[in-house]
Fold:
Amino acid sequence: MEELILKKLDLEDFISKFRLYFAREQSLEIQGDINLFKLYLDELDKIAFTPPSNILKLDNEMLLLKKQGVLKLEQIFEFIKIIKYFLYLKKLNLSNFKYIPLMLEKISIPQDIFNISNYFDNDGNILEGKYEKLDFINKNILTTHLEIKKQINKLLQNSNFSPYLVDKQIHLIDSKESLLVSAGFNKILKGQILHRTQAGYFYVFPNNIANIYDRLETLKNEKEMLIYEIEKEISNIFLQNILFLKFINKEFDRFDSMQARIFFAKNGNYNFVLPNKKNEIILCDFCHPNISNPTPCSISFKSKILIITGVNAGGKTMLLKSILSAAFLAKYLIPFRINPFKSKISYFKDIYAIINDPQNSKNDISTFAGRMLEFSKLLDSSNTLLGIDEIELGTDANEASALYFAILEYLQNKNMKIIITTHHKLLASKMTSNPNVELVAAMYDEKRRLPIYKFLEGCIGKSYAFDSALRYKIPHFIVNRAKEIYGDDLENLNELIEQTSLLKTKLLKKEQEINKQIEINQCKSYELDSLINKQNSDFKNKILELESIYNKALYELREVLKKNDTKEIHRFLNKQHKEFSKLPKESVNKNIKFQVGDRIYYGKNAGSILSIKADIATIELDYGIKLKTKLSSIKLASIKKQDQAQKIDFIKNAKSCNISLDLHGKRVEEALELLDKYISDCLLAGFDEVLIYHGIGNGVLSNVVREFLSSHPKVKSFSDAPSNSGGYGAKVVRF
Structure:
């Protein structure tokens, strides 16, 4: 199923390139929580490490161990490579990270497995000094090989034998070192002929080294028997630790899945998009991997159904494939070319594409029947992203519009998100009455008579079939005859359908905007009612508190008056004066002159002054609530600038951060992360203006910085710096 969708979406080559980054073959699926997986990726992106070398799948080896079988040294070394790689990762400096160290901390390597990993060099050979008997045999084998070489060199230097030598090379025939000689060699050399060439020469194995070879074979046999004993010993230890080996084998697959994505992203300058659950697809500057010089695609698809219409060969099918491809790649967290900061992609359990013609003469299935068969398989699906190319294909247009209208209406209620391309204006027009439908049209340059591969939202596009026919070399007289047959009435009908559809779309959007504003106003009204109720409650509590103080004082006064003691009366009055002085009093800073338009704080809430009358100000808080309050209850948020045109004056007394940030040489993701943190620090430090250096270069970093500053809620304005402060390579940012 996975391979089929890759083929339909033209992603086969892209995914094949991605798979090359795995140390061993594995599925695209992510094991475990995808959000945690993304946190691992974010940290790995900042860690300098070497990717693992190729490692075999060890499923068969695991099964052999469970059956108490004996692994060969090369199989054992595949496990050792995994152990050695995790030991390498544990030695990295990861003190500044959180999630990767926690993952590695869980991998506690048993001592006997650790010891075995030290038996091998990086090529899988057992190191000298680990097995004394093996070292002895290897030494004897080496000595024997040197003895054979010595005997052969002696023959080569024999002047009587030289006339029979074809060359002075040592040839390996049937694993035996032999010489290439001509006929008559037996007068000088006794040996065994191993092979004869077409030219009449002979490969001869000399008898004087045959005995040495016998000793060599004996040593090799002893070595093989010893190696088998070593393999049995290690396999037994592996069996005792099989649960650990199973665990670390699985952990390696997980890490391999991460590192492949990281290095693929770095080498291709790709970005990750973490899928969400908002049931929307917003693509910004997406480039389909199969197109060599693509026009970046941007689309917002928030409803349940997206209908793509417009000119033939204008990119409708490619837009459909692009949306499905982006969703597929995001689902498996495979990096690709996109603006990740402005893109949002929902997670879909299944992604299904009906793109190719399903007609099959072998199975006697027509185009329309094949389409119906594919739809029938989807009727019980949910949380699926479905793409259908040329939905009207294969049957009568009028019947198809009614049938597909009913099918799409049913599927949208199954929590499906559906994208279709069509030339069928009747179907598109009917679907516009559905509030869950969005329209986009492939645009066309009528002057040049060429598609421009861009899309206009909210309308039904023309097919421009006649212009397309001319573009593909159909003679003018045939096209003109087709226009006569088509007639003006049908053309006018199509124009009417397009205009009606556009009007419907505008009305639906207007209705949605009004409903949204009503919801906002209702929310503000609720917040205002809550604030009024709180103020009334505070006011009542204050009255009760004052009444309590008043009654207590009145009671004490009566008690004092009963005594008719003047001194006691004075003491009472002094006491009450002290109590009164403890009550909170309104204080007005007469040095501060409030003006209409000033930014102020009311408690912890920011706002601005709308009007002032005496000592009462009407203010509006940032979240929309208007109220009247005394000037004593508000304070200025910042001192108003008297001269906006004055020379840039940077604050120099901030202690928490610098007044400038240099982003030269940074990657886009790293630069945006630094910029976001720097602006937050500046706001905390109270800066009014700062300077951002980004350089000129190829303009990529400059554009990214400009987009980020434009969308930041706390940035009031920004402009190019003066020439002595960086000019076009820097931005002055005001808060």
Q: What stands out?
A: The first strand starts at residue 171 and ends at 173. The CA atoms of residues 137 and 477 lie 92 Å apart. The longest helix spans residues 476-563. Residues 23-110+241-268 form one domain.
